[in-house]
Every structure is written in structure tokens, then in C-alpha cells.
Specification:
Elements lengths: L12 H14 L12 H8 L7 E4 L7 H6 L7 E4 L3 H10 L4 E3 L12 E6 L8 H13 L1 E11 L8 H7 L1 E9 L6 E8 H5 L1
Amino acid sequence: MSCSIAHPRPARPLGDRLLFLARWLRNPRAIASITPSGSALAALITREIDRGPVLELGSGTGAFVPALLTRGIRERDLVLVERDAPLAVRLSQRWPDATVIASDAARFEDGTRFAATVCGLGLLNMPVPTVEAILRAAFARMQPGAHFYLFTYGRRCSVGDATLDRLDLSARRVGRTWRNLPPATVFCLSRRAEVVG
């Protein structure tokens, strides 16, 4: 039996940037950046992911999807959660074999057990209880040993130590890329019991 890896569809950088900017102007707190993430950040945040299914929270225009496909993750093994309706429609059109859910990241419905989660949400713009609800929802749907990847434009993890302690999670710095606008740092969150054990 032969197996082929789907090649990423061509990017539409100008259209994505304009849509992202329009959505940001409409609601800056909901859309944490005025531009989609770049390919360097996409490669960094996905570089440790080698199997699916993968959950992506705050998918935006799907900037991380080509990097996941390049890593060998099948499009049908992607669940993309995006609350903003116009962005969710674009995701559905661009990635028809993926599951696109137009919902809040803490309240979406899907029965999949994920091997990894990639988060594109602006967690620093959210109240701590919201961040904790998102993390609880994601980890409840993740397989044992699965990791949660997020990025921040600062140098410190956007999930604070007190939140990590309450949820019994640990944060590890994966790396930083200067080839993103703005430069970004990627962190990996894991359940502490699994890191120790």
C-alpha cells in the first residue's frame, strides 16, 4: 500500500494579511496580532510534532497548517478551532479535509483524543480564568504524553507560574525566532506527572 503526503496549498499572504487586519480592527482584543504568523514561527511551533491528530486553537487563517502537513500530519487529522466566523469560513474553504469548528476554544465539542495541541491564541490578552478554562479543555482532550505548544512575543511564557501550578503543568522553552513579525518565542506545556514519571 502506498502512502502520499499532501503538499501544502499555495499561500495567499496579501489576502490573509488584509483579512487579518480587518478582523483586528474590528476587535483588537480577540485578534491578538495585526498579521498572521510567518513560516519561521510555523516551523518552530510544529517542529516537535510527528503524529496526529492535532488540535489547533485560534487557527486564524491557518498559518500553521502547511507546516503540520510538511511534518507528515494528514489534513483529515487536523481539528482547527476558530471563534471568528469569517476566519472559520476561510479555513473551511482552504482546508476542506480538516475539521473546522467555529467555537470558543474552551467550549468546543469534538470527541477526538489529540496527540498535540498548537495554540495561536493571544493568551496574554485574556483573563486568567479564561486561560485556565482553555488549558483544562485542551488537556482533557489530549492523549497521555501529549504536549501543548504556544507562542508569545515576549521572552517569558504567556501562561504564568501560578496558573501552571494550579493546573499541575510545566513549561519548557522550545526556541525563539527572529524571522517573524514580531519575533516570537515558543513554549511547550506538559503535565508535570508525565514529565517527572
